[in-house]
Model the fold of this input.
Amino acid sequence: MAVMRVVWRLTAAIVLCATGAGVAAAANTPRTTMAAILDGVTEAPGPALGVNHELLAEALVCGDAGSRDGAVLLVHGTGLTASESWDRTYVPVLTADGYSVCTVRLPMRALADAQVSSEYVVYAVRTLYERFGGAVDVITHSQGALEARWAIRFWPDIGDKLDDLIMLSGSSHGTIAADAVCLQQLKGSTESVAQQRPDSLFLSALNNGDETPAGPDYTSIYSFTDEIVVTSALNPSPAIAGATNVAVQQVCPFRPVMHIPMITDAVAYALARDALDNDGAADVDRIDRGAACARLVAAGMTPVDALINAATYLPAAASIFLTRAMDEPALMPYARSALPGDVQTPSSRPLRSLVSSAFGLAGPRLSVP
Done:
């Protein structure tokens, strides 16, 4: 067995070098750490990664190592790319402040099966943990929260490798917008959109039991004026039990923040940075409310950056509505046991699901101040 392991490591290293697959994920990585990285992505506990390692490596892009310990991984949302979400927003600002920043590009603009997309996050966290030699902070937007939480739940080593999970407008309990898309397309929607319907099998498995498994500090930042991940004061979809759940309106009452502009919002960024820069989750009492509320765009970003970011509504909407209709994918074998006993199939009636979600007929999950 030891001989086979050595042969596998040598073979994998040769393939990575020959194909260039390791360039994005392991650029500037000393050779002495390559074996550790290979171990981290191939021999760690949890389900075997089914995605080709070349694709996983190509999707991970890192800048130069910063002066701070560890690394920050940015995970984008539905209908977007890593570049569209982060290249003019969190990447340059965090890099300028000494963070080692990496992005992961989820397949098909994050329209593919979220279970598959989660493998990209698993690979990224393991690789960054080995490469940068410290705990990884993960910042997500929208659907990205689902991939990060799925990775923590079903791959036991991931939670131990994380310091913070910071979610911006996370669709943790689904969104009625997904039901609306399914209703509009009549025969279904893209795979990940179908998985974001509030009664999907994916969300039923993800949210059954402990919503914040041991590992990172969880911060969920959201807005009551989000038009995509629609929330209410009593039953906000982004809020998860056991996390620090903060609406931007708790810092600045009546502040209007929509879904994609959450990435450039000054208050959301202040909360995210508070979690990054301090032990534990974000703490509203540490926020300089006057400074945060006086700004529309996060410090270090410009109004032009915000406008370009807001313009990504167009490619996001086009990709969602023009992609051929698909049903929700079946759960992977490793996730089926996580389903509640009374849940076997998702609702095939998007109109009934939409009405039920809109009026909160399932009842509130938790009370959020």
